[in-house]
Write a structure and sequence with these properties.
73% of the residues lie in helices and 0% in strands. It is an all-alpha fold. Helix 2 packs antiparallel against helix 3, helix 3 packs across helix 5 and helix 4 runs antiparallel to helix 5. The longest helix is centred in the last third of the chain and has 45 residues. It is elongated and about 95 Å long.
Length: 216
């Protein structure tokens, strides 16, 4: 119906001539600095920190390409892949750092397995002692003719909840053991394969950030 039409797609609060995450003078806003990891310490060599820097730089490059109306679809696809890869690297890095801390404290996979087994054994023994004491009390009440329906209801509830409690406790021990051991394995695998290095997790984004900081 119209020969000339103008379409605009943006986000809530968007203004013409103002880039998202940037002030009018080109400096980054607080949200921009957080998104791009500008305030992260480049001297922090923890894998998690480096991975966050990598994600921030990947986001910055992608946003700049979008703002400049980059029509190179392969380049945009590459930048999006880098962003997704950086997000996954943060989760990986957290596991590696946590595994390193656990090993530094003297934790081992064998030790964690033993702790979980001992914890379950202690919980089972405690449950068995409680059940035995309960049954003894019920027998005494029955022999004295003092056993009531209320006593039986309480005994049944204790038996049931005791079983549920033991199951919940054993599940908690198993989950904790699995998480801790997985973190230790991640660190050991990364160290063995050489993927725990700064260069790998930081990729070129981290190297660029370090270079810029040194040139200031």
């Amino acid at each position: 119906m119209y020969e000339n039409e103008l379409y605009h797609h943006g986000i809530k609060g968007m203004r013409w001539g103002v880039r998202r995450y940037q002030n009018e003078d080109g400096s980054y806003t607080r949200a921009g600095r957080k998104r791009y990891g500008m305030d992260l310490d480049i001297n922090d060599k923890s894998k998690t920190n480096i991975a966050k820097i990598r994600l921030g730089e990947a986001r910055r490059r992608l946003d700049v390409a979008k703002a400049n109306n980059n029509t190179n679809t392969s380049r945009l696809a590459e930048l999006r892949i880098r962003e997704r890869s950086a997000k996954r690297a943060i989760k990986q890095a957290k596991g590696i750092d946590s595994g390193a801390k656990r090993l530094a404290k003297g934790e081992t996979i064998t030790g964690n397995n033993l702790k979980a087994a001992l914890g379950f054994a202690a919980a089972y023994a405690g449950s068995h002692v409680l059940t035995s004491a309960l049954n003894y009390s019920i027998s005494n009440l029955a022999s004295q003719g003092r056993l009531t329906a209320g006593h039986m209801a309480v005994a049944k509830a204790i038996n049931n909840y005791g079983g549920y409690g033991l199951y919940a406790l054993s599940t908690a021990y198993s989950i904790k053991k699995a998480v801790n051991n997985e973190q230790i394995r991640r660190y050991n695998n990364a160290r063995m394969l050489g993927t725990s290095t700064t260069k790998h997790l930081g990729s070129s984004e981290y190297a660029d950030r370090v270079k810029k900081a040194k040139n200031k």
